[in-house]
Amino acid sequence: MLQFITHPSEKYNIIDEVKMVLEGGCRWIQLYMEDSSDEDIKKVTEEIIPLCQEAEAILVIDNRINLTLETKVHGVFLGKVKMPALEARETLGAGAIIGVTANTAEDIIAYKKVDVDYVGLGQYKGSTENLSLDDYKNIISEVRNAGIELPIVAIGKITLDDIDDIISTGVNGIAMSEAITNAENPVEYTKQVLAILNNKMFT
Question: CATH topology for 2-201?
Fold first, then answer.
């Protein structure tokens, strides 16, 4: 599984980013516009919903429960200090996808009796408290031993060169952002990522 997290840059706006990764075969978009107003996010969402529908791709919004409900996208991804997952489920209903952030095994185990759909575990790179490959392996082992089978997606500044190592830890997928948008050809880069992931996940 490849999730693409939007990251506006000097080269591309969010609409262009989504078009490119969808063309490259990615089928999961997370709209991240943390510092933007609800109105600005809504305008972008209105543009990318048809793109995702045409590609049969999942679209989740970062943290904005109200916009997730209003725009009828597939779901929401919650940061640790944002709205609790239980409240999000009550607001969005049984059919919504709810992703949650985790940094430790304890974070994930805390969701054992909560109706969430996947976990973003990180960060692998890009923060002052990075998780090592061994950290990922140990966390996933502890979580699975606790009887939790939630899909776990590695989050961080993951690049093409990291995929083999990070998938070997037992994660179910990866989230990427700048590695794709900074690539010389984001469409081809996305295709390369998916080719490696498909080979690793199904062999």
Answer: TIM Barrel (3.20.20)
